Automatic annotation (TrEMBL):
<feature type="domain" description="Flavocytochrome c sulphide dehydrogenase flavin-binding">
    <location>
        <begin position="376"/>
        <end position="429"/>
    </location>
</feature>
<dbReference type="GO" id="GO:0050660">
    <property type="term" value="F:flavin adenine dinucleotide binding"/>
</dbReference>
<dbReference type="InterPro" id="IPR052541">
    <property type="entry name" value="SQRD"/>
</dbReference>
<dbReference type="InterPro" id="IPR016156">
    <property type="entry name" value="FAD/NAD-linked_Rdtase_dimer_sf"/>
</dbReference>
<dbReference type="InterPro" id="IPR037092">
    <property type="entry name" value="FlavoCytC_S_DH_flav-bd_sf"/>
</dbReference>
<dbReference type="InterPro" id="IPR023753">
    <property type="entry name" value="FAD/NAD-binding_dom"/>
</dbReference>
<dbReference type="Pfam" id="PF21706">
    <property type="entry name" value="FCSD_central"/>
</dbReference>
<dbReference type="Pfam" id="PF09242">
    <property type="entry name" value="FCSD-flav_bind"/>
</dbReference>
<feature type="domain" description="FAD/NAD(P)-binding">
    <location>
        <begin position="35"/>
        <end position="138"/>
    </location>
</feature>
<dbReference type="GO" id="GO:0016491">
    <property type="term" value="F:oxidoreductase activity"/>
</dbReference>
<dbReference type="Pfam" id="PF07992">
    <property type="entry name" value="Pyr_redox_2"/>
</dbReference>
<dbReference type="InterPro" id="IPR049386">
    <property type="entry name" value="FCSD_central"/>
</dbReference>
<feature type="domain" description="Sulfide dehydrogenase [flavocytochrome c] flavoprotein chain central">
    <location>
        <begin position="173"/>
        <end position="270"/>
    </location>
</feature>
<keyword id="KW-0285">Flavoprotein</keyword>
<protein>
    <recommendedName>
        <fullName>Flavocytochrome c sulfide dehydrogenase, flavin-binding</fullName>
    </recommendedName>
</protein>
<dbReference type="InterPro" id="IPR036188">
    <property type="entry name" value="FAD/NAD-bd_sf"/>
</dbReference>
<dbReference type="InterPro" id="IPR015323">
    <property type="entry name" value="FlavoCytC_S_DH_flav-bd"/>
</dbReference>
């Protein structure tokens, strides 16, 4: 594997990498007290836990995560498309190394309830009492906005998985792609905000890359309600035209309406520029990747934390504290206060900021979010060995505002993508791949 210094490809401070040799605490009681509880062991949660312990090795930090292993969305599309020699093992890791290296507590259980007033988290086996709570719980799908029939929702989840949550959904998509014999592979993109804006367009490229490599006669049809791709629009349109002209069919102003798995037909609305109205159309498909509207993880509402109508969590500007509680922070993909891309790098970057803010708060020091700004970089694979990136640098004017730069589609960006990813894995998990 190619290794590059993670901090050359991201905007996280290089001064933060330290190690510790204290063994992680063993948790074996029914009621646990901790200074800081972190719900969620993804990029945001683990980044925050790691940095809190770096800033104060004696701070009692507890991570609660239901998954048995860490599973990554970044580079999963490369794995689907057989690019960069990415293996499934490159996307999946144990939590043990991080727990031992950074010395936080880890509870591998499902959270059943959160009482923010009593400051309690109830899992299947424990009650965790905390002083500060960090919600890093990610997204949920809002299938109810697509289908009223619960059976249709279940069928769609199984037969046309969204693939924005790591693990089983990615394995299902991989099987669908490997067994594909020909015809239409349809990707439907939701309106509104969703996890990782470039992911569906990168996935279209990677599936087309697989079909091209294996000489499969197929079309990848992208239904997009927008005028142009939601991220890196010029570069993705260039990629569709340059590398996959005979494979990818991009349909803008197209809204997914329904799917029939028996007749293998999808119903959608497409805007007709001549008639200036939407027309109802249908297309046949062999396989489909239907991405429903996204919203904050259900644990946000279970904790009675305020959300906007679109389902994303409200924060107290310019902080990452919930407007519902001064002692609850929300980081990662669940927040809806700031126009941040819901990416792994942004999760990592904002987690570091919150860790520093919380340490300063505990030490009765002031922290200025307007002067401590996050940064983001996001890579998208286009072919076997070429990629495109976009970077965001922020300033604060009434709210966080970004200045962005998009790269060319080229090979060194793909090399940088590998360096960034494995550097981030080493950073938060303590594992060198």
């Amino acid at each position: 594997m190619i290794r590059r210094d993670f901090f050359k490809y991201s905007f996280v401070s290089a001064a933060l990498l330290t190690t510790s040799n204290i063994n992680a605490k063993q948790i074996n009681t029914s009621t646990i007290k901790t200074k800081v509880a972190i719900c969620g062991g993804g990029f945001a949660g683990l980044s925050c836990a790691k940095h809190l312990k770096e800033l104060n090795k004696d701070l009692d930090v507890t991570v609660i995560e239901k998954r048995a292993n860490f599973s990554s969305c970044p580079l999963s599309n490369a794995w689907l498309g057989e690019a960069l020699n990415i293996s499934y093992e490159d996307l999946n890791y144990d939590f043990n190394s991080a727990i031992l290296k950074y010395n936080y507590n880890f509870i591998n259980e499902t959270i059943e309830k959160i009482n923010k007033d009593k400051k309690q988290i109830i899992t299947s086996n424990h009650i965790i009492e905390y002083e500060y709570l960090i919600m890093a719980v990610g997204i949920d799908y809002d299938y109810e906005k697509l289908f009223k029939d619960i059976n249709k929702i279940k069928e769609c989840k199984l037969k046309a998985p969204a693939g924005l949550k790591p693990g089983s959904e990615h394995l299902a998509l991989k099987r669908m792609i490997k067994n594909f014999k020909g015809g239409n592979f349809v990707i439907s993109i939701p309106n509104g905000t969703y996890k990782c804006p470039p992911a569906p367009y990168e996935r279209a490229c990677m599936i087309a890359n697989y079909f091209k490599k294996h000489n499969i006669k197929a079309k990848v049809i992208v239904l997009d309600p927008r005028e142009k791709p939601a991220a890196k629009p010029k570069k993705f349109l260039e990629a569709f035209e340059t590398f996959y002209k005979d494979i990818i069919v991009y349909k803008p102003y197209s809204n997914f309406k329904d799917i029939d798995f028996k007749t293998k037909k999808i119903v959608y609305e497409e805007f007709n520029k001549e008639k200036l109205e939407y027309l109802t159309l249908s297309l046949e498909f062999e396989e489909a990747n239907i991405i429903p509207p996204n919203k904050a993880n259900e644990l946000i509402k279970k904790a009675n934390l305020a959300t906007y109508e679109n389902g994303w969590a409200k924060l107290r500007q310019p902080t990452f504290r919930s407007i519902s509680s001064e002692d609850v922070y929300i980081i990662g993909d669940s927040q809806g206060e700031y126009a941040f891309p819901k990416s792994a790098q942004m999760a990592n970057s904002t987690a570091y900021l919150v860790a520093q803010e919380l340490i300063d708060r505990i030490n009765n020091k002031k922290f200025n979010y307007k002067e401590n700004l996050p940064g983001n970089i996001c890579y998208s694979m286009i072919t076997d060995n070429k990629a495109v990136s976009i970077s965001h640098l922020y300033e604060y004017k009434d709210t966080f505002k970004a200045n962005s730069f998009t790269s060319k589609i080229q090979e060194d960006i793909a090399i940088a993508a590998q360096g960034w990813y494995f550097g981030l894995i080493e950073d938060i998990l303590g594992i060198k791949s």
